[in-house]
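[09:14] KT: can someone run the structure on this one? pasting the chain below
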Amino acid sequence: MDAIKARRGNPKMTSHYGQSEDRYSSPFLLALHSSSEQLGVAVMDIRDPLDSKSSATFQVGRELSKNLLSCVEELLPISLWKQLGRLAVATGPGGFTGTRLTVVMARTLAQQLDCQLDGISSFALMAPRLALSLPLEKVLQPFWIVQALNRRGTIGGLYQLQLSQDLSCGYEVLELEVPHLLPLGYGVSPALVANDDVASDVEQLLELSALAHRTGHNASWNLTLPLYPTSPVGNH
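[09:31] RB: done, structure tokens below
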């Protein structure tokens, strides 16, 4: 599949670039994905989007807090962080601590650099991959992504692919229902089991952020929060 735009509903796309502003003065895009035991990092220079893309995954496990900055530096030296023009982060669901660490880092950088931050759920990122397992006649129909949690029930999100009006994108992913804890005994169909592929999904995240950058889509850092569907106090 080509680049796919994940979005919730139909937000209006509005440009935040002034006529005299040089949108290439901060050319680097950074994507972070830590919803599993792996950390995914992807970087792009929008002045050379085809040849500048790089990504890597790191088996950090519980050591993410110690290694997050050094892992990012392997792809983008800290001396270039001031040239970040946009960031993207996977918001979960996933490990509570790991997801929050990258979300906090992305929010802090976006706030300090006054740049846009795209927050996309890990289920939305895997949706186009998982949809390939559906019968052809159901690919454009709504489907669920579910994940069973030990002794905590099942979380699920509802998604749908649709043909994009942007000819370069192929499909869009609509997040009809964000991942949430399903009522006990509540059945959903068709249901695809969540399956992490951080290497693929962090690249997808970077592509979505690059598309948002090209179209001038506003995404404020303070609206990006981690998803933690089983938290007794919500997702804040």
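[09:33] KT: thanks! The CA atoms of residues 3 and 234 lie 32 Å apart.
[09:34] RB: yep, looked fine to me
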